[in-house]
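Please check this:
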Amino acid sequence: MDKYKKLATNTLIFAIGTFSSKALAFLLMPFVTRMLTTSDYGDADLIQQTVNVLIPIVFLQINSAALRFALDKDSDKGEVFSVGLRTTFIGFAVFLLLWYPISLIKIKDFALGDYMVQIYTFVLVSGIRQLCQQFVRGSGHVKTYAIDGIFATVTTLVFNLLFLGVFKWGVNGYIFAIIASDACSVAFLFITCKLWRQIKVRGVRASSWSDMLRYSVPMMPTIILWWIINVSDRYMITGFIGSAENGLYTAASKIPNFVIIFSTIFIDAWQLSAVDEYDNEGKEDFFTKVFRVYSGGTFAVAALLVITCQLLTKILVAPSFYDSWKFVPILIMATAISCHVNFLASVYMAEKKNIMSMFTALAGAVVNICLNLLLIPKMGANGAALATFAAFVVVFAARCVDTRRFIKIKFNTPIIFLEVAILAVQAVVMLHFESGLLMYAIEAILVLLMLLINLRQITELVNLLIGKFLKKRKN
């Protein structure tokens, strides 16, 4: 299959599953923010983010190894999945020993000790789901992977309506809805892909376990560092200001997820193509063309989000959360740069070299923490958003330089600078004027400029992807 057509096909398949689950997060926001206070919403988010950072630590980021090694055409899939499961259960057994010290952690008015059962159950179920998802995806079952996304969307909706709307369980209902949905997803993947057939009780080679852990363990610091860049600001906002402000900031962070939808759909498919084509001739041209289309699309979506962020906030959240829109423009800028960082991660993945991925993330984490300490007391939550943006800029710049050791992507740096500048001016205009005809006139001009800059990339996307399907149908 033509490499562009394969990328387009996988992108479409992943779009079906990913878009439904991501779209649900927005559709549920009006309901969730009406069922929870700003403080409760902030606490629920802190629990979810705590689990997100615990999973790679507890399970040694083994799900990433399951994906990468399952992608190898000559790999023993049974060994890959069995190593993943064994690592998961051994890691959780060790994690149980840390129950008491974790229960003592408290940040101002938020105490982890109040939610220990929820956290431990969340970690185990979500960890198993991530392992199953990535193994299924790496084994080539991309359609099942997409269907699972739709299935998880339905179950999440049902459990949220039940636990929050009917039972009125508050924060616990929000968390248990995620756990129940993840459990259903695990059952679905086991049944449809017959994953029990991949489990080896005996005969797993020590070398397979060693190879997978050598790949996954170095990723743990990187994941933790990403968590610092993406999430530590929420803990610091809670510490400096309180859970209510963090609740607003959390609500604001959902709007930039529209950019994440675009990015995630593509990156899921792109990782498969990056590995497939990495050893072929013409890879630099392939990576460059795909990057420019991806970059242009990301910035175009980001520009459209900034101009519509007030409207989206009014639609998606309860009135008590409306002021959260003031944090959205800078968060959109940060998210757009993070999408570019994720693209370059595919180079490290294809090379199976994660050390520099860790060091570049470390640079961003240091910048993020320092700027959070400096800016949050002075600027509030927008200081945290600005710190996150600066951190991603540092990581992206470092990876642009470092990945040239492996592949020389032509980034067209002046255009990227111009696109970032347009987003920055949009943010300043939005925050300065807040409303009015003049504000929207200026924003509209800036959005039009962004679209014109990326017109060639949009045209190229049509020619490279949609054109391949039309050509195939004619043949």
In short: The two ends are 14 Å apart (CA to CA).
